[in-house]
Amino acid sequence: xxxxxxxxxxxxxxxxxxxxxxxxxxxxxxxxxxxxxxxxxxxxxxxxxxxxxxxxxxxxxxxxxxxxxxxxxxxxxxxxxxxxxxxxxxxxxxxxxxxxxxxxxxxxxxxxxxxxxxxxxxxxxxxxxxxxxxxxxxxxxxxxxxxxxxxxxxxxxxxxxxxxxxxxxxxxxxxxxxxxxxxxxxxxxxxxxxxxxxxxxxxxxxxxxxx
Length: 211
Fold this sequence. Notes:
Layout: H1 3-46, H2 57-72, E1 79-85, H3 101-112, E2 114-120, E3 126-132, H4 141-153, E4 156-160, H5 169-179, H6 186-198
Parallel strand pairs: 3-4
Antiparallel strand pairs: 1-2, 2-3
């Protein structure tokens, strides 16, 4: 058999494999996806599920305060959403571009990290992000990472303290600063917390709390 014939046969076999392998991969991927869906369905079918409240008592109070503040400041067309993943608010890579490994890690973190509340404008833009926090608790790296993420994304970030649910003066001040695009320093936040604890009176919350 001549060398030319070997070459022709090699090209023919290579072309055939080139057509068959992608089809095999497509079928394999489809089979895997089907098996995964069936497995998920079986898990849900066998599980005992019961409804849970979306918001805790404290979350419900914080939500009412945020809505009350936004209406009082002329943002009545805004909405407050609860328990929103950061991935819904920002991206770690430019749309359409292939993210680097570092961006992929950031994307996973965004998808796994949840925010307590976000104030959204009528056009769907995030105005202020809010998280429950303990003022006297040790430094929380995850909370600091959230604050840094929102700073880099250009979205205001405000922490809600337990004392704010009783007297929201400090919370309202921090929200006003965030809406104006002003950063809240630790010193400013601490002053707001002390004012709230002292019961500085100003506005009345929907729960009848003095501010």
